[in-house]
# Entry
Amino acid sequence: MKILGTGSALPKMTLTNDMLTQYFDTSDAWISSRTGIKQRQVMSDEHLEDLAAEASRHALENAGLTATDLDFIICSNVLDEFISPPLGCRVQSLIGAQCPSINMNGACAGFIFALNTAEAYIKSGIAKHILVLAAEMPTRMVDWTERGTAVLFGDGAGAMVVGEGSQLKAVHLATKSAIDCLYQKQFINSTPFDIQEANKKSALQMEGREVFKLAVSSAMKDIQALMTEFKLESKDIQHYILHQANTRILDSICLNLKEDKSKFHQNIQRTGNTSSASIPILMDELNREGKLKEGDRLILSAFGAGFSTGTCLLQW
Ligand code: UT7
# Structure
């Protein structure tokens, strides 16, 4: 599989740390030092499918293709206005594609799971050109009176058009069931036959410290396993593009790997944690800035609720 084009889209409203002090007791100093985040883009009058379609159009343009060239759309998404039909179906009509579309929910690691599925479809001949898309609005998942979670997130969409090639060298996926540290239940209708209490409206629940430890240990394990499998040393990897969850998580992984900080790209300072959209948004920025050179090796690694992790090795 090869990446033919990248695209991204962020909502227009910028929410700075200082602006957050209107809603709860917090400060720019606390948020910056604990997370690295200075501001995030949040949805106001936008709909998620509009951001997703915009990111997809940019990726198609970057690939030099049109929507009718697509054979499949794979969309990574956690929260959407619709339970059904899924987001990818609505994006299909907005961009003018005619191919089948599926949605995947792999939480924050969802984009790597989607890339892995895209590669399997390409290898098996099911599809030639696939739009792999992630669009997320985690700011609508949190309780806006709860400072421990509300400060962490931003909204956005990232996309890639992928086709045949040998850029993707390996993918490693893992799920280790650990629900309690990071989850959100949704309201579902009850029936006359229910004997259990119905779920109430609820917000994202998170044990921050536990998630922090799991994120560092699982990403380290996955990255080291890939490097050992391919007999790679530090000098062989030019870019680490990790899920933008927290600067301190990224710094810990970098330090434990004894890597150069400049290889660990970050945009979390501007975007916050955009869940599964964070890796394709960052990839698009690096691609458009010309930072990815032919032959460069990239490690992509994401972690999140599940606890699920996805790591892959790409050669640009
Ligand atoms: O995609 C995966 C999503 N999740 C993550 O990546 C989260 C991973 N975890 C983390 O990044 C960190 O655990 C957090 C940034 C969420 C929290 O940092 P922490 O160093 O683990 O802080 P804490 O939760 O232990 O809280 C320390 C203090 C508490 O006050 P007391 O009890 O010491 O008086 C909190 O009430 O900081 C307080 N606090 C805040 N203060 C100001 C919590 N949130 C805030 C806030 N502003 N926004």
Notes: The chain has a mean pLDDT of 96. Residues 26, 30-31, 34-35, 108, 147-148, 151, 206, 208-209, 211-212, 215, 245-246, 273, 304 surround oxa(dethia)-CoA (CB under 6 Å). DSSP finds ten helices and 13 strands in the chain.
